[in-house]
Give the backbone structure.
Amino acid sequence: MDLQLTGRRAVVTGGSRGIGFAVGRALAAEGAAVALVSRSAEQVQEQAALLSSETGAEVVGVAADTGDDASVTAMAAAVKDRLGGVDILVNNAAMMNPGAIPDDALEAEINVKVRGYLRCVHAFAPEMKERGWGRIVNIGGLAARQTGSVTGSIRNAAVTAMSKNLADELGPSGVNVVAVHPGATRTRTFVENLDKRAAALGRSAAELEQQWAAAASIERLVEPHEVAAVVAFLASPLSVAINGDPISVGGGLKGAIYY
């Protein structure tokens, strides 16, 4: 399937690793020019060079802290200067937590995961509206639909509510906005945290992974490239019928019925 992304220009925050990097790869492979954004200038530039070499697409790396107004403003200016504009925004930046998110981290989490997403929307959505086309994909998480972490649930539920409000506001201008909720995904961070948790409990990482896998209908962890494939479709013109409704990409949680 041709996703009609050739010539489109995309920004992916949190783009130097994990799901963000996989999304950047998927978009570049479809012919989009991509700006990867991350806090680490060295890392994001190395990853951008890797994707450019791998896909033949134009891929640039830009350092920014999406938790800071001035940093986002500077990043947006740099991206527009290098790509000539932006058609697609994938918000994926998040705090780097070594394990479970503590409740006292709420303010910092909201600043990056919610306000940071809004900062980027404000930086790029006006030109999308002006051109009459755009796609914004906000990466949340299935903690929006599960208990277990107060902070995790609040931040991801907020991403969902924000996305729906933006979808209603921007939809008439040709700009679709969708929240995507990954579940247990085999990123490097997930695996590292799983290993630490297993060591603390005196159990094997394989045993803990099986517990995570058993909660999903596919009974395995989702791979980053599988999340990225869904995001690439949502970033394309073919996804016009999907706007504002959250998309879960956790392999299908057993038991719950959403309607």
Remarks:
- The chain has a mean pLDDT of 95.
